[in-house]
Design a protein that fits this description.
Layout lengths: L1 H12 L15 H10 L4 H75 L7 H14 L1 H8 L1 H15 L5 H23 L4 H25 L6 H14 L14 H20 L2 H23 L11 H29 L6 H6 L3 H13 L17 H20 L6 H19 L23 H24 L16
Length: about 500
């Protein structure tokens, strides 16, 4: 039925717009379905409702096609492009598949050769480098910690040096942390002596320790150092530079460190005394005026004494002796508290009851032909630093007195200064370094004076002993007041 109807309608399919005829029912199921539907409609329906239904369906189809083209035109264009290149892509894919098939045997041979070359049992430089790289990657955290050790050590040393002015607990803990880091680095150097990395870290740590040693030595030269701070610094120096604390034979336990301590404290004393430079300049001016006055007196026939000054020199010597007394006692007491000498008579030997014995000992050592220096036994222990230090201290004071004391012509002022020297000698004498006989060697202080300085010194000692005897008599009957029997230095 559908075929007959199709043959009947074929002449009417050709239209003026040139559209093609639909396919036959045998070729298209849609055509067969529509022709079967037409056969069921009446003639009135075919004339009235069917054209309207076809127009509505056509319009709906056109709208749907427009919406689809608006929504998916890019996909249509891409599909069209791909479709246009499909003729060339398929042959190219075929050629590349053939090449891949031909390369598979060669790839298999290369894989077998690689497996044979880089097996775990074979010795290969590339494998060794890879193993080292993998080991380095696994231990990168440990290596970074080791590399940070010199930086941490330098930071600890610099921060401790910055905080050393206050000498607080923070500085102590920081120096202790720095020493612990240095000990850890030395332990690593002992465990891995052939490692270039550890050697480099150790060399940087040595530089940091040199800076720490410099800071500690500078700290020992600071003003008014306390016993606790000095003991901490000496303890740190013993750990940083153990070679300074070496002992040999019966040498003192302080070693070179004791000499270093005395040198630093002596430098501090000298710098403190140099602060008196304005007063010393005035005293030098009085010395120059006194020298000029002496020359005028020698050239004058009248012989009148025109020199009656010396007040500035008196001020300078008073302040000088006060600083000398305080600092010398502090230096020796700190040394004995820190280093604890083994021989109790070392300082007494250094004192030698005064400058007369010191000068005699020096002359005997340098001028005596019967005991040349080369005959000394080289195996004997070196003397302790404290055995020669008071000699230098006494010479320092003696030179100052020899230079400036002749400027003071007033008898009471000279007695006051000599009394200060006496108290200074007594203060140091409590530690075994009494030099109360020092001025007996200064008889040439003022050759033009009728009274020699040695006699003045004897008079001062005689008055001091008389005063001490009276005080002892006054306090002998009063037990609680016995502690006041000590004679203290007068306040000038």
């Amino acid at each position: 039925m559908a075929d007959s109807l199709f043959e009947l309608l074929v002449p009417h399919f050709t239209s003026s717009d040139g559209s093609t005829a639909p396919q036959s029912p045998s070729q298209s199921a849609t055509t067969a379905q529509y022709l079967n539907r037409i056969s069921t409609l009446s003639l009135q329906a075919l004339k009235s409702t069917e054209p309207q239904s076809l127009a509505q369906a056509s319009h709906s189809t056109v709208v749907s096609l427009q919406a689809l083209s608006n929504r998916s035109h890019k996909s249509f264009v891409t599909s069209a492009d791909h479709l246009s290149t499909l003729r060339t892509s398929i042959p190219k894919l075929t050629r590349e598949a053939r090449q891949l098939r031909d390369a598979i045997p060669k790839l298999d041979e290369e894989a077998v050769g690689f497996s044979r070359t880089y097996t775990k049992t074979a010795e290969n430089a590339t494998l060794e480098r890879r193993k080292k790289a993998m080991q380095l990657a696994r231990n990168v955290d440990r290596l970074s910690d080791i590399l940070e050790l010199p930086t941490l050590l330098s930071t600890a040393v610099s921060s401790a040096a910055a905080n050393s002015i206050t000498a607080g607990a923070s500085s102590s803990s920081t120096y202790s942390s720095a020493l612990d880091l240095y000990a850890h680095i030395k332990r690593l150097q002992t465990l891995y002596p052939e490692s270039p990395l550890v050697k480099d870290v150790a060399s940087q740590a040595e530089e940091a320790m040199k800076d720490m040693t410099t800071n500690l030595i500078t700290g020992l030269r600071s003003q008014n150092i306390r016993l606790a701070a000095a003991m901490r610094m000496v303890g740190w120096l013993r750990r940083v530079a153990p070679e300074l604390d070496g002992t040999s034979g019966e040498c003192e336990a302080a070693g070179a460190l004791g000499a270093l301590f005395l040198i630093c404290r002596l430098a501090s004393l000298v710098s403190t005394l140099e602060a008196l430079e304005p007063l010393r300049d005035l005293a030098d001016q009085e010395t120059q005026r006194r020298s000029n006055n002496v020359e005028k007196e020698q050239g004058s026939t009248t012989g009148t004494n025109l020199w009656s000054e010396g007040h500035q020199t008196e001020k300078y010597l008073k302040r000088y002796i006060e600083i000398y007394r305080e600092q010398s006692f502090a230096i020796v007491s700190l040394y004995k508290s820190i280093f604890a000498p083994d021989h109790s008579s070392e300082l007494e030997l250094a004192g030698v009851v005064g400058a007369r014995g010191i000068d005699a000992a020096l002359r005997a050592k340098t001028l005596s032909p019967q005991q040349p220096e080369n005959t000394l036994d080289p195996l004997l222990a070196h003397p302790s630093p404290l055995s020669t230090f008071p000699t230098h201290m006494v010479q320092l004071l003696a030179e100052t007195l020899r230079t400036y004391l002749p400027n003071v012509q007033d008898k009471s002022s000279r007695e006051s200064l000599l009394t200060q020297v006496l108290y200074c000698a007594a203060s140091l004498g409590r530690l075994g370094g009494d030099f109360s006989m020092i001025l007996t060697e200064l008889s040439d202080l003022d050759p033009d004076s009728e009274d020699s300085a040695s006699y003045e010194w004897e008079e001062v000692i005689r008055k001091h002993r008389a005063l001490a005897g009276r005080l002892e008599q006054l306090t002998s009957g009063n037990g609680p007041a016995r502690s006041t029997a000590r004679v203290t230095s007068p306040i000038h």
